[in-house]
Design goal:
Blueprint lengths: L2 H11 L20 H17 L5 H14 L3 H7 L13 H16 L2 H7 L4 H5 E3 L12 H5 L3 E6 L2 E5 L5 E5 L8 E3 L6
Antiparallel strand pairs: 1-5, 2-3, 3-4
Length: about 190
């Protein structure tokens, strides 16, 4: 595991560490343009941050994610709150832990910076079905789709993934249906 990911997950691995998970669900009308989509995403993250207690440990994790991983600040703050030991409903604990690890590897590999530069938004990367996040693969963002695999290439229209078993898969970038998709950090446990 990369050093940045270990520092990011350290407060969760230490027995007795306080849980930092707190999420809100968002209901809003689907934005009509990419600019409106970005504004809506930032508003969701800001609302989540305002409604929860922000600790020094979370601030440190957010800084690590932002600076070491090259992620936009809004993504960094939201991902810093993911608790690997507290999966949301409909997501098996092992799969949730794998997703949190995939998020860390995505950041450690510099893919967040590249994805952002290519115009990928958080819903395309971290989105999942609002009601059945684990079961509905048609609404999974790229990081959910990794499932322990690795990104080999990232382009403006898709990605090439190497699965845990060594097979290569193509992931086609698609615009999510905002009325059906929620961001991983908005899932409630």
């Amino acid at each position: 595991m990369a050093l940045a990911l270990e520092r990011w997950l350290a407060p969760y691995i230490v027995p007795g560490a306080p849980s930092a998970t707190s999420a809100t669900s968002a209901t809003f009308v689907a934005p009509s343009s990419p600019a409106e989509c970005e504004v809506a995403e930032v508003a969701i993250v800001a609302r989540t941050a305002l409604q929860t207690t922000w600790s020094d440990a979370e601030e440190e994790r957010a800084a690590i994610i932002e600076f070491d991983g090259g992620a936009p600040r809004a993504w960094a703050e939201a991902l810093a709150r993911l608790d690997p030991s507290n999966p949301p409903d409909d997501v098996p604990p092992k799969r949730w832990l794998r997703l949190v690890n995939d998020c860390g590897r995505f950041l450690d590999g510099g893919w967040a910076k590249r994805a952002s530069a290519l115009g990928w938004g958080p819903f395309e990367l971290f989105g999942c079905d609002r009601k059945r996040p684990f079961a509905r693969i048609d609404n999974m963002g790229l990081v959910w789709f990794l499932n322990g695999g690795s990104i080999l290439a990232l382009h403006c229209d898709g990605a090439v993934i190497e699965t845990r078993m060594g097979a290569r898969q193509s992931y086609r970038r698609r615009s999510p249906d905002i009325s059906r998709v929620v961001l991983v950090w908005e899932l409630t446990a």
